[in-house]
Design a protein that fits this description.
single chain; alpha/beta; 7-stranded parallel beta sheet; 4-stranded mixed beta sheet; 13 helices; about 45% helix; globular
């Protein structure tokens, strides 16, 4: 399967790390450490190979992807030797990137978005293209009557004003153009009834939201432990420090609130109740793409004995996210090829705030993913 990945925010840190990593894997210059689909327990025979992937995308910035890769190398996020070895390949990706289009109406903008993706697919002879949103976190949009019905939405988009936030407009354009969609951010994306209707009408799968890379990954392991041991969690509070573009964007209180809500959902749904406490996200410019999370958990044991757990997580956001982006794109492309439609609940393993009615315990999500991939492989006859 020769497939395309169209990245929204294509010149950002996560996108550039994803592209650099995929090119390095294709050239045999790196190992797939961190790629879930490289795990030997998973059947990935139906997924497109790294050598089958072609990258394109939209962004509002103009820094070339090779220059961004050099900046990431200087920050210690990707090896400088890879950037040097892949310079020509990165320039070829740059040739596929376009400035995010704007139109007189959102309907016109969606048409221009879809036209860029269609031209990309035709230029490279691609069997299919998945659109992956890696752009900055958006505030939750105000409700709009058009969000509930596809016909009403189409009419509203043709009029003046803003009906959909950018992530949802890209989901609309992707579905309208026959492409599946993955939202790696906590933004609204395809999480609107009208967009679910459009995806069903076009027979398309989609996945999201908010990639699970650090603190919430630990929550999805630890919260089931407390639940299964019948220990009463009284409070769970976390402080997240991060820099980079994402950190700067989350200095906006509304975007920050959307992200924090996504990070807390796993506790409520795993424990069956919401303990006291909250998640705070602070911007620290000096730490760049590296992030630190510190959590304090207080709980009661037998006879009400009070105890606590503390943990600190330090990691590089782009290096944690990039392999998951490649995993999600490959799996969603295979799901599309297999004729699957609607929200891909078995991909909950990858998300803080997954679509569908899912178990938030990581071990349960792993088993659901393993079973799903085995089914996709069987359905496609194990071929690429």
């Amino acid at each position: 399967m020769r497939a395309g990945i169209w990245l929204i925010g294509a010149r950002g840190s996560v996108a550039t790390t994803s592209v650099t990593g995929a090119l390095a894997l294709r050239a045999g210059l790196a190992d797939p450490v961190g790629c879930v689909t490289a795990h030997p327990a998973l059947d990935v025979s139906a997924l497109p190979g790294f050598g089958d992937l072609v990258f394109g995308g939209h962004d509002v910035t103009t820094v070339p992807v090779a220059k961004k890769a050099e900046q990431l190398a200087a920050a210690g996020i990707v090896p400088a030797r890879l950037v040097q070895a892949l310079e020509q390949d990165l320039d070829e990706v740059e040739a596929n990137l376009r400035h995010a289009p704007a139109g007189a109406t959102q309907a016109e903008a969606a048409t221009l978005i879809a036209a860029d993706i269609e031209a990309f697919a035709a230029r490279h002879g691609l069997d299919r293209v998945v659109v992956v949103n890696l752009s900055s976190t958006e505030p939750a949009p105000p409700p709009h009557p058009a969000h509930a019905d596809l016909g009403t939405l189409a009419a509203a988009l043709a009029g003046p004003g803003t009906v959909l936030p950018p992530s949802s407009l890209y989901a609309y354009a992707a579905f309208d153009g026959g492409c599946p969609y993955v939202d790696f951010t906590p933004s609204t994306g395809a999480r609107l009834p009208a967009l679910a209707e459009l995806a069903a009408e076009r027979g398309l799968p989609y996945a999201g939201h908010d990639g699970k890379t650090g603190e919430t990954l630990l929550k999805s392991v630890l919260a089931p432990m407390f639940a299964m041991r019948n220990l009463a969690v009284r409070s769970w509070s976390g402080i997240n420090l991060l820099g980079g573009g994402d950190g700067a964007n989350l200095a906006d209180p509304q975007a920050n609130a959307a992200k924090a809500a996504s990070k807390q959902r796993v506790l409520r749904e795993t424990l069956g109740y919401a303990p006291d406490g909250d998640t705070r996200i602070d911007y620290v410019a000096d730490i760049g793409d590296f992030k630190t999370a510190w959590d304090l958990v207080t709980f009661n044991g037998f006879l009400g004995t009070g105890m606590c757990l503390q943990f600190t997580w330090q990691g590089c956001d782009s290096a944690l996210a990039a392999p998951l982006v490649l995993d999600l794109a490959r799996i969603t492309l295979a799901a599309h090829a297999a004729g699957h439609t609607g929200p891909l609940a078995p991909l909950a393993y990858f998300f803080k705030d997954p679509l569908g009615d899912v178990d938030h315990a990581l071990h349960a999500q792993w088993e659901a993913l393993r079973t799903y991939l085995a089914g996709v492989g069987a359905g496609l006859g194990g071929g690429r």
